[in-house]
Write a structure and sequence with these properties.
The complex is a heterodimer of chains A (287) and B (193).
Chain A lengths: L2 H23 L5 H6 L5 E6 L1 E5 L16 E5 L10 H5 L13 E5 L1 E3 L2 E3 L3 E7 L17 E5 L12 E5 L18 E7 L3 E2 L13 E2 L12 E2 L2 E8 L8 E3 L8 E5 L4 H12 L13
Chain B lengths: L1 H17 L14 H7 L12 H27 L3 H27 L19 H8 L4 H26 L3 H23 L2
The chains are: A alpha+beta (287), B mainly alpha (193).
Chain lengths: 287, 193
């Protein structure tokens, strides 16, 4: 093969790759409109701590007082006994937008054995993770998703991520990090986004969902739904040795999501924000 | 070299051309899949006679009792008060009997035991850190009594939840027996001062 041919092929590959970016970005609407929007498939919900209970309606259903301590965000009615979405549908929550009455919960964080209230609680619904955001379907009402590994014993079996807000020079870690004075500890958790299309839960609470493989949902879990990314900020910094979660060290961070978005609200956001790759605000309208 | 480039080119072309998540068959969900799924929401998966609540209860109590046995054995070995030693011995024996009953329930249902709570701060479960601290506590009897009381009180709450929610006969019977035993053990502990 000549040098020229290699150069030509390289150029062709680059052009193809560039075209792929544009196409997978999803061109919709008129050119003027396309320029006005932010080309990120996203809509958010910002919530607050609602209540704290030793309950877990997914892992320990109908067994109040049987769980490690959880911080519940969103729906005010969630307890060990609210095992169906119908039981949560009539309640209110504390998220922005208020129509999101989903329930989200995580293990309680303690500093020197005192519980810490997270002050920033954001749930991003994203189109990333799959090559074709146009194929993403609305998350079905009542879907339960668990992310993270509450039994993690090391870095290898953990997907937790801890970092510092306003201190990007501190390397993220799977365990707690030492954040400089004036900054906050933050944690990210990405939920699996490929659904088996048939069951809203499974006996291990995990196997009805899967993570994408090479930009696509596996044939066992063929239905892509928006990727849920939880970002929590805690008003603590400094030496992390006094920190623990009710499930253990930072690597055991996990999150539970019980979808109670009204179907029409979820469908609208997937249609208007996720599928066409447009960044939306809390109201589900393009920013 | 040439082959590699051709493969890359083909891969890139198909990735942008198809717009699909993968070239392999990727069936779209049938229309109405969501409605069907929503109607199945209640209860979660059943595992034979042992439903999600009963199974979670059995697994939790096994995990709790394992840790409780460690605590109680320490009490038998190190408590100064003869009354406390004797109570620790009784409770340890009860926990071991409970463990074999609970294991039997899982065996009958052909469910392998999985410890879902190792390292967690579970109600009624003495943690490894607490057990370690107990071994070097200046007043062993006082610290042992505190941990035993926490185990009994919190485990009683779990048992009451199980007794009222579980429908599986054998698991419900264990939960009811636990409620009685925890309550009587707490009275004995209080009587020892």
């Amino acid at each position: 093969m000549t040098k020229n041919r290699i150069r030509w092929l390289t150029l062709a590959l680059a052009a193809v790759a560039a075209a792929g970016v544009v196409v997978s970005g999803g061109i919709t609407g008129s050119p003027e409109k396309a320029q006005a929007v932010i080309r990120v498939a996203e809509f958010p919900a910002d919530c607050a701590l609602s209540h704290r209970l030793p309950d877990d309606p997914i892992v320990l259903p109908n067994l109040p007082g049987a769980s490690h301590s959880h911080d519940f965000f969103g729906n005010h009615a969630t307890t060990a006994n609210t095992t169906t979405h119908q039981q949560l549908a009539g309640a209110t929550g504390n998220c922005n937008p208020a129509v999101d009455i989903s329930s989200y919960w995580v293990p309680t964080l303690y500093k020197n054995n005192q519980p810490v209230v997270p002050t920033g609680i954001t749930f991003y619904y994203l189109g990333e993770g799959v090559n074709n955001p146009g194929a993403i379907r609305p998350t079905p009402v009542g879907l339960k998703i668990v992310a993270g590994n509450s039994k993690a014993t090391g870095d290898a079996d953990s997907i937790a991520r801890w970092s510092c807000l306003h201190a990007g020079h501190v390397n993220p870690s799977k365990n707690f990090v030492n954040c400089p004075s004036g900054t906050q500890l933050e944690t990210y958790l990405d939920f699996p986004q490929c659904w088996n299309g048939t069951t809203l839960d499974s006996s291990d609470h995990k196997s009805h969902m899967a993570y994408p493989v090479a930009g696509g949902c596996p044939s066992s879990h063929p239905v892509p739904v928006p990727k849920l990314r939880m970002v929590l900020r805690y008003p603590v910094n400094g030496d992390p040795s006094g920190l623990r979660l009710s499930s253990g060290d930072g690597r055991t961070m996990h999150g539970d999501f019980f979808n109670v978005w009204p179907a029409a609200e979820m469908e609208r956001r997937v249609r208007d924000c996720i599928n066409p790759v447009i960044k939306c605000g809390h109201d589900g309208r393009p920013l | 070299m040439k082959l590699v480039l051709v493969v890359l080119l083909v891969a890139a072309l198909s990735a942008c051309g198809l717009q699909g998540p993968a070239p392999a068959p990727n069936p779209a969900p049938p229309p109405g899949a969501q409605a069907v799924a929503s109607n199945r929401a209640a209860g979660g998966d059943a595992d034979g006679d042992l439903d999600a609540t009963a199974r979670a209860f059995v697994e939790l109590v096994i995990a709790t009792d394992h840790q409780a046995v460690k605590l109680l054995d320490l009490g038998v070995a190190h408590a100064t008060s003869p009354g406390l030693r004797a109570l620790a011995g009784e409770l340890a024996a009860t926990r071991r009997a409970e463990l074999s009953e609970l294991r039997g329930i899982l065996d009958t249902a052909a469910i392998p035991y999985v410890d879902n709570h190792a390292g967690h701060d579970m109600p009624g479960m003495p943690t490894e850190a607490e057990l370690l601290a107990l071994s070097s506590a200046p007043d062993f009897d006082a610290e042992f009594t505190r941990l035993a009381r926490a185990h009994l009180t919190e485990s009683a709450t779990v048992a009451k939840s199980g007794a009222s929610s579980i429908t599986h006969g054998e698991a419900k019977a264990v939960a009811e027996a636990m409620v009685r035993e925890r309550s009587s053990a707490l009275r004995s502990l209080d009587a020892l001062g």
